[in-house]
Amino acid sequence: MEICRLIRSAVLASCLFFAAPSNVLSADKQTDASDQDGSQTEGALPPSDFGLRWYGVFTPCAGRCAISVYNGSYVKDGMYQIFTEGHPPHTWDYDDDYIVAGAASKRILSLWDMFHIEPEIGIARRYGQQHVTEVWAAAYLRFDGFPWNKYLYTSIAVSTGVNYADKITEREEARGGEAGGDRLLHFLAPEITFALPDYQNIQLMFRFHHRSGAYGFISDTDGGAHYGSVGLRVWF
Questions:
Q1: Which range is the signal sequence, renumbered to this chain (predicted)?
Q2: Does the domain at residues 2-235 carry the CATH identifier 2.40.170.20?
């Protein structure tokens, strides 16, 4: 049953990544100017009447590809508790368990140059109290249309996808409730990024790296592991 679920989820993730014909940051604004004078951005379709802009997955990056690296500490608090009660990161209950991760992403769709879809693949290693390797495939929805961006470029994003761990730890079994743990879980990792306006391609990233059962959609387990993390993203 687990193998079938893994195959099904992998197919769904592949569709997210490759199905759509596939801007980033300051590069988006620069390409808008070139579109207006009659030229066309390399590997891109012109924007539609609704402000929708598509890019090809296998086209040149042209500023729309990114590499991210981050490191974080295990958070004992539940995700629902943190975000519904508005607990800031400095009040979270951390533990001596950590994660280091790397991810690659590409922007494939933009709407009104402020909403963006970015498929991502990543790999992480937990260390400290847990020794687990994770891999994931996800799609991020990002918003960067903040009015203060000329002073401090800011974006927020949230993901949906699948995360597979090479083992189930006692900690995840305990957090999973009656169903216990599961290797294949949902990947929901909200984040916020900041950058200097003149260097929008280099961003400071804060991500809540989280995997869980998604209320039975991916797994019957209640919860998994999650980490409050900080890292760096570079667009190219």
A1: 1-26
A2: no
